[in-house]
Structures are given as C-alpha cells and as structure tokens.
Amino acid sequence: AGYEDHRAITSAYDRMKQRRATECSATDRSLFLDIPLEDQVRELQQANSTHVAELEALRIANQLLSDKLLDAQGACDDVRNDAKRARSAADQQENAAHRQVLAQSERIAFLEEQVSLMRGVRVGDDASLVDLAPGEVLIEVFVGQLLSAQQVGGDEIPLAFVTADFLIHETITSNVVAGQTGFLDMSATFKVQADSLLIYYLCSRGLRVQLHTVRGGGSGGAPESYHTIGEGVVSLLDLIANEDILLSPRPTLRG
Length: 255
Prior knowledge:
Elements: H1 2-23, H2 26-33, H3 37-119, E1 121-123, E2 136-146, E3 159-165, E4 172-173, E5 177-178, E6 182-193, H4 196-204, E7 206-215, E8 225-235, H5 238-241, H6 243-246
Antiparallel strand pairs: 1-6, 2-6, 3-4, 3-5, 3-7, 7-8
C-alpha cells in the first residue's frame, strides 16, 4: 500500500511538474527541477493534507446543512399534518352544523304545520257550515258599534278604531270612525279545528279588544299614528260552559 501511495504521489508530482514546466520560464523551470525529491513529496503531502482538511470541513458543513434540512422538512410535515387535522375538525364541525340546521329546519317546518293547524284559516264572511270538514267549526268575531259612557277630550271630536285578537291569528282592525260613538261593523270568520287545543284556549284565554285614538287619516282612512286608550278581554268560556249557548244551532256570545 505504501508503494502504491508513493507511485501515486510521484505520478501527481510528475504531472504537476510538467504543467509548471510548460507555464514557467526557463529560469523558473531550472529552479523547480533543482528542488530535492523529498521536499517536493513533503510539499505535496502538505497540500494533500490541506485538501483533505478542506474536504472534511465541507463534509461537516454538508452534514449540518442536511440535518437542518431534515429538521425543516420535519417541521413542514408537522405543519402539514396540523393543517390536515384542523381541516378535518373544521369539516366535522361544518357537517355537524349542517345536520343541526337540517334538524332545526325540520323542527321549524313541523312547528309551522302545528301552528297552521292550531290557528286554522280565516275565511270569507259568506262561508257556509255545509263546506266544513269533520271536526271543523266556524267562529265569527263581530264588533258592531262603539259606545262611550262619558265624554273624553272636551269638545274635540276624536278619531278612533278598534282592534281584536283571536287565537293566534293576525290582529283584526276596524275602520277609523269620528266621535266616541260610531258603527264599526268589523267582522272576521275563522275556520278552526274543534279539538282540545281550541277547548283549552276558550277556557283559559279570551278575545282581547283594544280601543285606539288616532291622529291623521280621517274617518274611514288609515291612521298615521295612534295611541291605545282602552283594553278589554271578552271571556269565551260560555261558548262551552253555558249549555244554552252550547246547544244553540248558532251559538252566540255577546260581550
């Protein structure tokens, strides 16, 4: 092995000598050729040691860079995995929210259907009992005349109208009349189910009637603004508790 190393060093030295001989002047070439072989070998060994040290330094630097690259790659993989987990969690939350919205929508639709069944429908005043389905009844709300027991507001002639609330239907509103006495002739007919819910409402609730004064609009017109000055509740219990009314062909309750 030592012999082979010596031959390699000698060969490298010869090539270097030839290259220098080509580039150098005749004087430099003569000086170079006069260097003893041992000094030339030592110089080559020193140069080789320097190259080996530089190579080792490069190897170490490359190893350090490789380690940093691996660390960066690991951090990138961690971030990517965290992003995947976050996206998966977000997708699960979105799906859960979507299912909840669907469930709530179905619940709302069910409640709307129940409310629709509960409130019935408002029909025309000419609705006939013949057209009723089994279990349905017609309830007519009629407010005929406004009478005042005492004068309110001095000599000024007030403008007034009346509203009534039955079951959970929209509020019924009369025309605006001038004075504290007037004919309202407000009526509304409702077709509802004669079930336990209606019985409970008739037993526990009443027909709320409110009196309002208005400014603007004039008699028979739409009010611009109003103020509630009176309210009363008409009990509906006699519709089912009073036998004479209950058995009447056209049960009527006045209040």
